[in-house]
Amino acid sequence: MLTKKQTEHFRKKLTSELREIEDRNKEKVEELEKETNDPSEKFHGDEADQANFLEERSRLLRLRDRDRKLINKLHEMLAKIDDGTYGICEACGMDIGADRLEMRPVASLCIECKKEQEDREERDKALKRR
C-alpha cells in the first residue's frame, strides 16, 4: 500500500506529465491546422516532396493519437488516486509497488500480471500466424 507521501508524489508526477503532453499535443494541433489552412503548405514540388509531406502529416497524426491515449490513461490514474485505488493491480488486487510505479506511473497491473498478459498476447500472435 502506498503511503500518503508516495501517493502525492505520484499525483504530482502524473499531473506534470499530463501538462507536458497536453502542451506538446497543442503544438501538434496548431501545426496541423496551419498546414490545413495555409494553401502554400499543401502539396508542392515533385512526387517525392508530396510523399514527404504526407508521411510527415501521417507521423504527426499518429503521435497525436498516441498522446490522446496517454492523456486518457493519465486522467484514469489521477481518478484512481482520488478514489484510493491507485497502485492496486486491476487483475489480482495486489499492490503494484512504488518501484514499478516510479518507472511506469500509468501501470495498472503488477509486474507478474503484466508478464502473464504479455505471454498471452505472444501466444495469441503465434496462433494467428499459423
The name of the CATH architecture of the largest domain is Up-down Bundle
| Name of the CATH class of the largest domain | Mainly Alpha
H and E string: HHHH
Query: Segments where pLDDT lies below 50 for 5+ residues?
Result: none
Specify the biggest β-sheet.
Answer: none
Number of strands: 0
CATH topology of the largest domain: Four Helix Bundle (Hemerythrin (Met), subunit A)
How large is the radius of gyration?
20 Å
Structural class: mainly alpha
Task: State the fourth-level CATH superfamily of the largest domain.
Answer: DksA, coiled-coil domain
Q: How many domains in all?
A: 2
Structure overview:
The chain has 130 residues and is mostly helical. Helices cover 74% and strands 0% of the residues. It has two domains: 1-86, DksA, coiled-coil domain (Four Helix Bundle (Hemerythrin (Met), subunit A), Up-down Bundle); 88-130. It contains four helices and no strands. Helix 1 packs antiparallel against helix 2. The model has no long low-confidence stretch (mean pLDDT 90).
